[in-house]
Amino acid sequence: MTATIELACDESAAVISPIGASLVRFSVGDRPVVVPMNAFDGAVLAPWPNRIDGGRYDFAGDSYRLPITEPERGTALHGLVADVEWSVVERTESTVSLAFTLEPTAGYPFRFDLQVDFELAEAELRMRARALNTGSAPAPFGFGFHPWLSPGTAPSGTTDPVDGALVDEAQLVIPAARWYETDERLIPTAVRPFDDGTAVPADHASDDSACMVCKDFRALRLIGGTVLDDAYGSPRRGDDGWSRARLKGADLREVVVGMGPGFRTWQACTGDGLDEDLARRAIAIEPMTCPPNAFAAGEAGEDFDVVAPGDELVVEWSIALTGADDTSCFLPK
């Protein structure tokens, strides 16, 4: 079994697995922030996040077919590096950097050097990811990250997701102007803008997982029984160019997930398809640089990045828990 990497800074702690360069756990004191759910736990998703329909896509005049890794839906899911072992290249008490060389493979004949840096501060974890094209041709590329966020502690105070609170009891903000409507295989069929002139009625009820009103989390509101495995585009950003999603737990503390300017899409998943003892015990809030099925249905350079030989794609994202002092634990550079 591959040993995990433990980071510490005052009351904050994080556990990183070299398998998938995955953020498995993050906590502040006894408050869980990121928890394992046995489903791409905090993994790096590259060179594409989410799904590619049938594993097929065209790029630069050539057609490619990726292995089908989600056979029940007939898709290529979450890239090629989530289940491989990355190498530790640098480590301190509160930081770690991991690297992996992605060699040409079936359906993706491109070569990249990948690196992900984790920096733990008090009540915040910051990530920087880099993809350097070391091949001889331009290549399509996408980054995604898959942290499962805890809705807080249950009344018993447990930090175990199996015994913890449900996401139904938490409130959510996803700052995005558009929602990706999908078919039953979660492949987008339309991109629909939210109506700025409407709000979710207090007495609204729907048993339709495709109800657009139910998917609108532009303002903080209770998740309740809403089923989410949905992508959101045109993220709303602050003056710093970052977009920030928020999960407010029943304990009134907020987990804030920030994604920098290189990201185009949010994905939210309430985990309803997981084993019964894990379903809806955490919510995945996933920053992605491209939407689902981007290589197959998107426009190169517009919906996903094309990285030229010798060039690199660099993105930054973060997870923080509000309500705690932010004392830096970074070493001087």
Automatic annotation (TrEMBL):
One of its GO terms (biological process) is carbohydrate metabolic process. Pfam families: Aldose_epim. CDD domains: Aldose_epim_Ec_YihR (cd09022). GO terms for molecular function: carbohydrate binding; isomerase activity. InterPro entries: Aldose_1/G6P_1-epimerase, Gal_mutarotase_sf_dom, GH-type_carb-bd, YihR-like. It comes from the Bacteria. This is Aldose epimerase.
